[in-house]
Amino acid sequence: MQIEFIDKKILVSAKVLYEFSVKNFSEEDSKQFLKKHLGIGWSLTSAAQYLTGKSATDTIMSLASDFEYEGLTKKEFLAVMISAHDFCANASLNGPISAGRFVDSFKI
Fold first, then answer.
1. pLDDT over 60 at 4, yes or no
2. Please, which residues have CB within 8 angstroms of residue 24's CB and are 6 or more apart in sequence?
3. Cα-Cα-Cα-Cα dihedral sign, residues 47, 9, 38, 28
4. Which pLDDT belongs to residue 5?
5. Is 7 strand, coil or helix?
6. Per-domain boundaries in the chain
7. Is the model's pLDDT at 94 over the cut of 80?
8. What is the DSSP letter of 24?
9. Amino acid 2: pLDDT
């Protein structure tokens, strides 16, 4: 799969969540990164929610095994997608914060 056919929101959401999770980005860095690349209205939470959607999930699962974007491999995209599902399933005591594809499977 060539990069120009991948939704920019998937690439940016995965990148910012990865960088935040490995502590390369602070919360403020993450906000600025999202604003710069996707515009206003994006947050770490909305990025995670986006990655739980059918389109993002299908896209990430179908990446070529040698896919890489700004240092992130397919394996790292998959790890971020799984983390996003877990976060969206368990972030609130009132239930999932996303109706994403596999979110219910991650509910503790």
1. no
2. none
3. positive
4. 78
5. coil
6. 7-106
7. yes
8. S
9. 45
* Angle CA 37–5–52, to nearest 5: 65
| List of residues 6+ apart from 6 with CB closer than 8 A | 59, 69
User: Of 101, 92, 30, whose CA–CA distance to 59 is shortest?
Assistant: 101
Token pair for 87 = 């976060």
Token representation of residue 74: 């397919």
Q: Tell me the per-residue pLDDT of 32-57, one tens digit each, with 9 for 90 and over.
A: 999 999 999 999 999 999 999 999 99
Position 100 scores a pLDDT of 93
Q: How far apart are CA 100 and CA 30, in angstroms?
A: 22
Over the stretch 51-91, which tens digit does the pLDDT of each residue have? Answer: 999 999 999 999 999 999 999 999 999 999 999 999 999 99
Among 59, 70, 62, 60, which residue's Cα sits nearest to residue 37?
70
Nearest to 20 by CA among 41, 39, 38, 45: 45
Considering just the CA atoms, what is the radius of gyration of the chain in Å?
Answer: 13
Sequence length of the chain is 108
